[in-house]
Write a structure and sequence with these properties.
The protein has about 600 residues and is α+β, with helices and mostly antiparallel strands. It folds into three domains: about 35-200, no CATH class; about 200-420, no CATH class; about 435-605, no CATH class. It contains 24 helices and 14 strands. The longest helix is centred in the first third of the chain and has 29 residues, at about 25-50. The chain starts with 9 loop residues before the first helix and ends with a helix.
């Protein structure tokens, strides 16, 4: 197994910078990932042998690698495809972290290392190699990557014997002992069985205008749990048709959007890890640079959602592969920044990743709004993300963290967004987009920015002494926060207005049970255009819960652009007013009106 030398043409680099990347370029990036996998595999073997020799011997790692190498010499193509499955990348990086002590162990190291044995079984099956391999059955199952799952009902160590295109699993008390002869499961490559002991991997496929895509719908790969995402425990058989129907819809949309872009997606993506919905997000998507070719998705609500999810995550996939080849950012730069799509501060690498993903989505929504029946929702998404991506690119350029190639990459992205910013958008969706971007920015500041404590204390004492506000000592600084996506009920109401206007109008007319009971009266009033009632409602919420950030953000939105005293301070630095109010209450037990504090600061700091 040899690692290749890779060189990327500058023209290809520039094409990626513009958000594109033709199918041949994506296939080239995929080949570079094979070298990365081989390097990671070599590192796991060497680290385990040197730093954990007992676990290395117990795991059968060397034996599994020997089978893989033999299979690769016999038939390189299938083994290289197997090495490029996302689970191997996730497993290898996890094992390196485990051996080096940077992650907490959940199982004995030998069991983690033995996961390579499952890849050896798959390689033997795919190449027609006869082999005997020690395996560990998690939960009594042997998941054979890219092929399926053997259900034995007997967890623990066992031996898998591959012969004549079939695998037989024998029980073993310990990896160092000779297995007993009783067969506890048997499987033939490519066929299921009536006893459902062998469950082939399920796949989705679709074709439009001669362009095909095939995606493994993998709800069994144990490595997928390493992504720290809400993985679906399993996709029921009756749900497969729904997944297939949504893919057909989404693939039709993608091929209509850009057939060459669809070809690139098909060349780069081949795996879907199904996610489950959460209380805060009915739809989720994610990807990882350690799992090239895979996307993690909840069941998309429709074809548009499936298409948008593939576009978004494919952007991450391309950029992650590029970053493995060239340095775009200074890894020593440790400042955190505002990312409009996240509720927590992000490092420059994360900000660049998000900007690139939403660049792709902005172009997608531009097409939807002009060429298909995307309606006001497509206009809204386009208007929202073109400005948010532009803001992120401006932040990156000013950060001082970009390498020369990184700056060139930003220039390519900026040229695309600059064209988007010249496009006309109807007044309604544009106004809603501006409100949503302001909401995200204000909420993020309230949640993550810490003003200088000494200045806040000085402000509080000046307020209580009826003195003028002292000048600011320094700007607010971001603090590391909990990972999260941007979502609140105001955004939900905006999306309802755009995607289901009849239901939104029914809610406006007071029809009962149209809205979820968690939607506050203040949020409803703001969505329906009654700003005065909304502001009063938010103040009532703050009287009950002084630290309710959604209510703080709602109040700031009500004051935004109003011209009222203090609106400028409240809008520009809401976190200062929040922390000042907390400090005054702590020192005097008084619940001060946020508007009064902001007006006082505005008058005395001019």
């Amino acid at each position: 197994m040899n690692v290749g030398f890779h060189r990327l043409a500058l023209a290809d680099f520039d094409e990626l910078a513009s958000g594109g990347g033709h199918a041949d370029l994506v296939r080239y990036l995929r080949r570079t990932q094979l070298s990365k996998r081989l390097l990671a595999l070599r590192a796991v073997l060497e680290d385990a042998a040197q730093q954990a020799p007992d676990d290395f011997a117990r795991s059968g790692l060397a034996e599994a690698f020997r089978v893989l190498s033999t299979a690769q010499r016999q038939d390189p193509g299938p083994v290289e495809s197997l090495l490029l499955t996302p689970g191997l990348g996730l497993w290898a990086m996890h094992c390196m972290r485990r051996i080096r002590g940077t992650v907490k162990p959940a199982v004995p190291l030998a069991e983690d290392l033995n996961m390579l044995a499952a890849f050896a079984v798959a390689a033997a099956l795919r190449t027609g190699l006869d082999a005997e391999i020690r395996v560990f059955l998690r939960g009594g199952d042997l998941v054979v990557p890219s092929l399926g799952r053997i259900r034995t009902g007997n967890p623990g160590w066992a031996v898998a014997r591959v012969q004549g295109g079939a695998v037989t699993v024998h029980a073993a008390a310990d990896p160092q002992t000779t297995p007993r002869v009783n067969v506890i499961a048997a499987a033939s490559f490519g066929r299921g069985d009536r006893a459902r002991q062998w469950l082939p991997l399920r796949t989705l496929s679709s074709s439009r205008w001669g362009q095909e895509i095939e995606l493994a719908l993998d709800d069994t790969d144990p490595a997928r749990t390493l992504l720290d995402l809400p993985m679906s425990p399993g996709v029921a058989d009756e749900e497969i048709d729904t997944w297939q129907h949504r893919l057909d819809e989404g693939w039709r949309i993608l091929c209509h959007y850009d057939l060459s872009a669809a070809a690139a997606v098909a060349a780069g993506l081949g795996w879907v890890y199904p996610l489950r919905s959460t209380e805060r997000a009915a739809e989720l998507s994610a990807s990882s640079g350690e799992a090239f070719g895979a996307v993690a998705l909840t069941l998309p609500k429709d074809g548009v959602s499936f298409a948008a999810g593939l576009v978004h995550e494919f952007q991450h996939t391309k950029l992650s592969a590029l970053i493995d080849l060239v340095a775009l950012t200074d890894t020593a730069h440790d400042r955190l920044y505002y990312a409009p799509w996240r509720s927590d501060p992000r490092p420059v690498a994360g900000l660049l990743q998000g900007a690139y993903a939403y660049l792709g989505l902005t172009t997608f929504w531009d097409f939807r709004r002009l060429h298909q029946d995307g309606g006001e929702y497509a206009h809204f998404e386009f208007a929202r993300w073109r400005e948010e991506v532009w803001r992120a690119l401006s932040t990156l350029r000013l950060s001082g963290a970009m390498t020369p190639l990184g700056l060139r990459f930003l220039d390519g992205m900026r040229s695309v967004v600059a064209r988007h910013r010249q496009a006309a958008v109807p007044t309604g969706p544009q106004a809603l987009a501006e409100l949503t971007t302001a909401d995200a920015w204000i909420t993020w500041r309230l949640r993550n920015l810490q003003p200088a404590p000494t200045w806040i204390t000085a402000l509080a004492r000046a307020w209580m002494d009826k003195d003028i506000a002292p000048p600011s000592e320094a700007g607010s600084r971001p603090l590391p926060g909990h990972r999260g996506l941007v979502y609140n009920q105001r955004l939900a109401l905006t999306l309802l207005r755009l995607t289901d206007p009849k239901r939104f109008e029914a809610a406006r007319q007071g029809v009962p049970h149209v809205l979820d009971g968690s939607v506050t009266a203040a949020d409803q009033a703001l969505a329906f255009g009654d700003v005065r009632s909304a502001a009063d409602g938010y103040k009532e919420e703050l009287a009950r819960e002084p630290d309710r950030l959604d209510a703080w953000a709602g109040l700031v939105l009500c004051r935004r652009g109003s011209g009222e005293p203090g609106a400028d301070v409240l809008t520009a630095r809401p976190e200062v007013v929040l922390h000042l109010r907390r400090q005054v209450q702590e020192l005097s037990s008084d619940q001060v009106d946020p508007d009064a504090l902001a007006a006082w600061m505005s008058q005395t700091t001019r």
